[in-house]
Backbone:
């Protein structure tokens, strides 16, 4: 009998796909989001405009939204067991939303809140791993594989250099501004316009003062 139970547990374990990447590449998460989208859109959104916004929001959640957040705000890696918790959280949330009586704008607002709640759960997991991997004493003890959100694969845990830790030190964030020549040009144009306006105002004051003085001379004659 114990052998039968062991075999059953093994079969169940094999039948449940293990997490192999972050939200945009986890098949169970993708399926839950897809079912949510097909249930709510367009049935709960008679208004075409709100329907398009809801569609875009849910498609984004299935696509690059969470990947970009993980890579841009953190180092883009999290522990496998934390992903299992996020997966269960999303399943419970999507089940509740599929049964909701809400429609139109109230439902769209609830979907926005849903995305925020998922983002908070993902943030906890990303931050948890980053704090460990950025601690050069603790990171040497990490042995478990982690999920790489950018490449959708499991990788070995490694220590992260201090300059790549947390938002302020990540070069991928600063590059958005570093290679933007158009931003520098716009700043220069703004300064030039401000100086020009100041000069024109000064000239207007001088002309007014000169005109007043001439008029006063005429009145005193």
Residues:
């Amino acid at each position: 009998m114990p052998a039968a139970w062991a075999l059953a547990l093994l079969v169940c374990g094999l039948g449940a796909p293990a997490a192999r990447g972050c939200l945009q590449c986890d098949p169970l998460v993708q399926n839950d989001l897809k079912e949510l989208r097909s249930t709510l859109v367009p049935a709960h959104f008679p208004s075409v405009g709100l329907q398009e916004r809801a569609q875009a929001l849910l498609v984004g959640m299935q696509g690059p939204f969470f990947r970009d957040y993980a890579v841009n705000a953190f180092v883009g890696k999290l522990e496998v067991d934390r992903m299992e918790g996020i997966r269960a959280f999303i399943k419970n949330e999507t089940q509740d939303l599929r049964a909701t009586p809400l429609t139109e704008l109230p439902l769209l607002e609830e979907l926005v809140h849903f995305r925020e709640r998922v983002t908070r759960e993902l943030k906890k997991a990303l931050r948890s791993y980053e704090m460990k991997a950025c601690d050069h004493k603790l990171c040497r003890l990490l042995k478990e594989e982690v999920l790489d959100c950018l490449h959708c694969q499991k990788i070995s845990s490694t220590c992260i250099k201090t300059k790549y830790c947390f938002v302020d030190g990540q070069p991928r964030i600063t590059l958005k501004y570093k290679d933007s020549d158009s931003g520098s040009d716009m700043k220069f144009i703004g300064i030039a316009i401000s100086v020009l306006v100041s000069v024109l105002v000064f000239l207007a004051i001088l002309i007014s003062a000169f005109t007043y003085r001439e008029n006063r001379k005429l009145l005193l004659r």
Observations:
- Residues 181-220 form the longest helix (40 residues).
- The two ends are 124 Å apart (CA to CA).
